[in-house]
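Dear Dr. H.,

I hope your travels went smoothly. While you were away I took the liberty of generating a structure for the chain from your last submission, since the lab meeting agenda had it listed for discussion. I wanted you to have the full record in hand beforehand rather than looking at slides cold. The sequence, exactly as received, is reproduced here:
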Amino acid sequence: MDATRAAAPPSSGTTPGSPWAWIPTLYFAQGLPYVVVMTLSVILYKNLGVSNTEIALYTSWLYLPWVIKPLWSPLVELLGTKRGWVVVMQFFVGAALAMVALTLPAPKFFQMTLAVFWLMAFASASHDIAADGFYMLALERHQQAAFVGVRSTFYRLANIGGQGGLVYLAGELQERTGSVVQAWVAVFWLLAASFAVLALLHARTLPRPATDRPAARHGSPVAEFVGVFAAFFRKPGILVILGFLLLYRFPEAQLLKLASPFLLDPPDAGGLGLSTKEVGIAYGTVGLTALTVGGLAGGWVISRIGLKRALWPLVLAMHVPNVIFVALAMAQPGNLWLVSAGLAVEQFGYGLGFTAYLVYMILVAEGPHKTAHYAICTGFMALGMMLPGMWSGWLQDQLGYLHFFLWVLVATVPSLVMTALIRVPEDFGRKQPDPPAT
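The corresponding predicted structure, in token form, is as follows:
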């Protein structure tokens, strides 16, 4: 990708400056609370002795705010600016992180922290609506496709910082203090302070697109609200679109919930017996770095040849490497770097395939209500992660890790079927050549 051209600001409607000045930090801030709610919570509860069945069930319920966020996404369109929503929600997330630190030492920590994670998830989902809408308002169409890899990269860097660096830090503090609770309390205070800094930064640095204003109202608020949803469900081929959004990540929805427990469980339980620090290195750092590189590569490929031509190679790159978890469950290698290498290959493929999914959602959201319609797409994406994740812990308990990972391979079939059914314009996502100089 020609970085100079891709980073050029839109020709009108925004203040001067490169998208590189705000996209990295905005999507880092978007990724951080998500990884806390959906991933750090799993490792936290595993460290505190909660069972796999309870972890998978209750943390999967935390997806619900992302599932139902389309219900209030029109409010983000109609009330205030996307920029204002972004900043306010970032301050709210910072406060919720501090509340987790305060409630962890309590006797009923499980119930109390779940309640706070629930509130954090609502704030994070609202932030996602505003941030994704802001992204589409502040960039031209070819830039949106070109920067998908960049936004995905910094979203994944937040995952690396959370799932890698913070998990490693929690493990280190556990060894030094001898207390799992105090180690995680320190981690959440650090997160709260970091998020407050990000909120202050964005209050100063986000551009002010001329198009970032409340949507024009042509009738009653209720009619406008209903009309946004009606317009989405009138899109051509909507049943196929919904099937694709729900089933594209069907195997990963089950795999992701059990990946960290698999790495942490002892070999006699079918796991690999890694320490918390080693999981931070193997899955949270090496694996997520590979996922980040895969996301960048996927964005680059789509910007060069378009989503239609890139779709099947990226889909296969996402699903085929799941066989690595089968191999790890069979061999149970004790070598950290061998495990890390396997996870790197699997995560690189996942990054490639997930980029195609993001660009397809941009395609579906095209139109006058793109902020709300993109939010509806991500709501169905979250539902597709939530429901399979809820039963995955129980299923793994029944099958054991090896047979569970074999089931994950079978579960790729619905994703492949829906990929074959969707329709993508020939050059969507491809950067068009610049007009000849006059």
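Two observations you may find useful: DSSP finds 19 helices and no strands in the chain. The chain has one domain: 19-214+224-421.

With kind regards,
E. W.
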